[in-house]
Amino acid sequence: MHKLKLGKSLILFLALPLFLVGCSKDHTKITIVGSSALQPLIEQAGNDYHLVHLDSNIIVQGGGSGTGLSQVQAGAVQVGTSDVFADTQKGIDANKLHDFQVAVVGIVPIVNKNVGVSNLSPKQLMAIFTGKITNWRQVGGKNLHVIVINRSRGSGTRTTFESLILKGKEAVNSQEQDSNGTVKKIVSTTPGTISYISFPYANDPNIQKLSVDHVQPTNRNIPTNKWPLWSYEHMYTKGKPDKETSAFITYILSKKVQRELVPKIGYLSINEMKVTRDSHNRIAKVGGAYE
Amino acid sequence: MSKHEQDLQKVVDQAIAQQKVPHVKFKKIDPESVDLARLTSQSKETRQERWGKGLTFLAIVVIAILIVAIIGFVGVHGLATFVNNKVNIFHFLFTSSWNPSAGKDHVGAAAMLVTSFAVTLLAALLATPFAIAIALFMTEYESGKQTRLLQSVMELLVGIPSVVYGFLGLTVIVPVIRTIFGGTGFGILAATLILFIMVLPTITSLTVDAFKVVPKDLRQSSAALGATRWQTIYHVVLRAARPRILTAIIFGMARAFGEALAVQMVIGNAVLMPYNLVSPAATLTSQLTSQMGNTVMGTLPNNALWSLALLLLIMSLVFNFLVRLIGKKR
Q1: What contacts B231, CB < 8 A, 6 or more positions away?
Q2: What is the pTM of this model?
Q3: B167 to chain A: nearest residue by CA?
């Protein structure tokens, strides 16, 4: 008898995942995959949304911008989130995707505190990240070797940084780290290091934020493009979103989320932007034409 | 009544007629208490047996399908780099320019291969003497309290998640290396030290097993010939256990080769041919884990990563094959 029970429970155990999968096939399920930068915002918004819409079922996963875009293109998920424009990614047909820009996030170059530099020009930044400047003395700092910490190839932050600063030039082959937290930790402890992180991570007294052309890296300077290092946070759907997905995106764009949640996470509301930028980095006034 | 049942009835009748055992009193079975239907039908035990067999077989089939699917999937995606994107396989294996998004001339995995092998070999080289020493202590010199203590320490080391090792490396080992050798502290040396701790319990416990299966009479004969304990260990035990120790080392290397997270945190992730132990480098696994999410399915950068995965898979099959080979020679 005992053995038989074991057998039956084994079958039950094996069947359990199938059962669970079957259960979650709810028609209001929205799966959102992609950018880890946008993940905390969507997760929090999803929780709040669920409190009002009890039948909603929003599943949020990271995985990176590339994953988000390819999953949404394949139709595997309802929304793919990305830090970069879909048409800048090879293998993605941006015409089939619908772009919802839901927030803006700034990017700031950071250095170790001992390099003795707090301001650089875009040209100097370019020279450092392409490996032309190798000593901090060359930009008015201490006699110290420059150590570049790059972000992982293809990460949203790196793609944005390189398209705005390197302008198509190849970055020097150097260390790569794939999370804001690790980058911050390394830069704060390793002499001579330089890297870049997104604004929400930058409020740390152990690292030196850099101004670019004497413009302070603050959220106030982003809407006018005075601080040019920023990127949109995109939510992509394949074609027009279905009713439930559309309702959730509308919620993300609502005043409640944009005024409270978005700044709380450290991002900038999309409504505050006075300029827009397209995938070729052309800037235009809101409602105006691109230069 | 079928022929079969008639036969059975006959046997039962005969048995009932013959049930006499001298000096032993027992309840005699009368013809009415024999239930022929029960005897001819399947017993509960037979059913259990069938169930068990079926379940076991099912589990094996599922696992087999899974393995074939994994190898097939990784194979198809991994070969796409060479078939669809027309990357030369020798170019892939022997050049070290790695930037797949820049085109097929920049798909060279040599730097990662060299780094992966370097950290694996160095970690095994470093860990093996310690593992053998600990195992000898546990089996030849001490038994009882200390052995049990060591055993639980080893088990503890196995149980620690790799992210914890990685974090330790990032906060302790990397700064120490930086202070001693300069640079950033990230590199093969840091990864080796982390992997050393991670593979030590694997190699040690398998080496302990290796020593335990060396027959006692070998040791006794050696002692009877007047050999000291060390002579016995060196000339008899170590020699007899050699194939198993080799197996232990290869298992350790397999673990080191496949470790991703902890290595990724301390190696620096720069795809450069390593020219010393403290320059940033990247292993196959660290590239895979840090890049996979940033690539688009079906593009060259994505396929190139699958090729790295295929390399890893082949390597782990090679490790398995080596273990078998050594096992056969024993």
Answers
A1: B222
A2: 0.79
A3: A182
